[in-house]
Protein: Resolvase, N terminal domain
Amino acid sequence: MTKFFLFCSTIIYNFISCLNEISRLGRTFVDTLNLIMDFEEKGIRVVSLSPSESWSTIEDSHYRRLLTSLFGWVAENEKRILQERIKVGIERYKKENDKWGRPTKEPDKKEVMKYRKKGLTWAEISRVMNIPASTLYKYRDIWDERSRVEKVRGIVE
Structure:
């Protein structure tokens, strides 16, 4: 963003800059509005190629400023409302479900052990079975712990 602004600040006056959507110019309404105002002061007119932003082609800079402010405000409010909805949805999901995130799937231990007997390393098995190596190592440790617990139970009983 800074390089773009520096580039625009060196451009001659009465330059017209075209972009696909004005809303992509800044992260927030304030950023977008400030950039457009700075460009206008430097004689750089920002024109959107989007049909929904045809108001940017209006000749009168006062009307363009008014509409830029209005649409920027609307866009920022839509973004805020969407973020609130997402947050509420995530909280509701977490409340209704035990786990958040991608469900885990335990690799087939028999298949893994078959490859181990053939002499494949854990990394090779992860590639063959299309399982992340970290997942395979995690389950290797879980399986080792289970077998140790079973041995202890067998001794104690």
